[in-house]
Amino acid sequence: KEPSKYAYEMFALTYTPIWIGCFAIIIVGQLYENFDAFTYNAVCGGLALPLVLQPLIMPSAGFSSPDQRRSFFTRYATKANLWIATYSFIGNYWYTHYFYSVLKATYTMPAVRLNNVPIAMFFATHFYFSTYHVFSNLMLRKTVTAFKPSFMRSVLFVSIVLVFAYFTAFMETLTISSFPYYSFEDRNMAYTVGSAFYGIYFIVSYPAFFYFDTEIDSKSPSAQNMTIWSSFVESCGYGMIILCLLDFVRLQLEIPLSIELSA
C-alpha cells in the first residue's frame, strides 16, 4: 500500500550493514587513531552520501519505487532525507549542548566544529537516524496493520515507541563506549539517565516519521502530499518540541545550560 516508503526503507535497510561494518572496522581496528579532522569528515560524510544521493541517482531505490516517475523534489526519498537531515542538524547544533551540560559529555577528537560540535557528527547522525527510523517504521506499521483499531492497539503503539526509544538510546551509548574520544563524566549515569534523556528525541520523532507523508502513494484527488518546504517545516516543528522537552528536564534537574563557542 505504500510502495514509495517501502522502497526507501528497503534501500536504507540494505545499506545499514555496510555503514555499521565500516564503523566496526574503524573502532575494532582503532583506525581512528590515525584520523585527523579531514579524515573524520571524509569518512562520516562519505558514509552519509549513499542515502543522500539515492533519490537523485537511483530514484527506484532498487525496489521499483514510484519515485522514479516523479520529479526530484516530489520524491518520497528526497523529502524523507530532508526530514532526517533537518532533524539531525537541529539535534547536533542544539541538543548536543544538553549532553555537554547535563551529562558532562565531551568530544576530544580532532575536529572542525560548528557551534562547538564536530561537523563529522552532523554527517554521522544522518545515517544513524535513517536506520533508526526505518526500524521504528517497520515495527509501528506492523502494529497498525496486524491489529484492528482499539484502545489496546494504541497502548501497544505507545509502548513500542517508548521501549524502542530507550533501547535505541541505550544501545548507541553502549556501542560508542569503545570510542575513547567521546566520553562522559559518569558513564553509568550516561547509560541509565542519559539513555532516557536521549530517548526523548525518539519518543517524538519515531511516530512523527511514521506518519510523515502518508498519502504519497494515494490515488485520491484530495490526497495531501508533502512538499519540500512542508517537509522542512514539519521537521523543524518536531525539533522544537524535542528541544522544549529536553529543557524541561534540564530545569527539573536544576542544571544550567552553558553553550561554549569552543572545546
Written description of the protein model:
It is a single chain. The chain has 263 residues and is mainly alpha-helical. The protein contains seven helices and four strands. It has helices at 3-28, 37-57, 76-102, 119-146, 151-175, 187-210, 228-253; strands at residues 106-107, 113-114, 117-118, 182-183. The mean pLDDT is 94.
Quick tags:
7 helices, two-stranded antiparallel sheet, mainly alpha, globular, 4 strands
* Order of strands across the main sheet: 1-4
Total E-strand runs: 4
Beta-strand residue percentage = under 5%
Order of helices and strands: HHHEEEHHEHH
Cα radius of gyration in angstroms: 19 Å
How would you describe the shape?
A: globular
* Distance between the first and last residues' Cα: 49 Å
Mean pLDDT rating? 94
| Helix proportion | 55-70%
Model regions low in confidence, pLDDT < 50 over at least 5 residues: none
**Main β-sheet: number of strands, strand sense, barrel status?**
2 strands, antiparallel
Structural class: mainly alpha
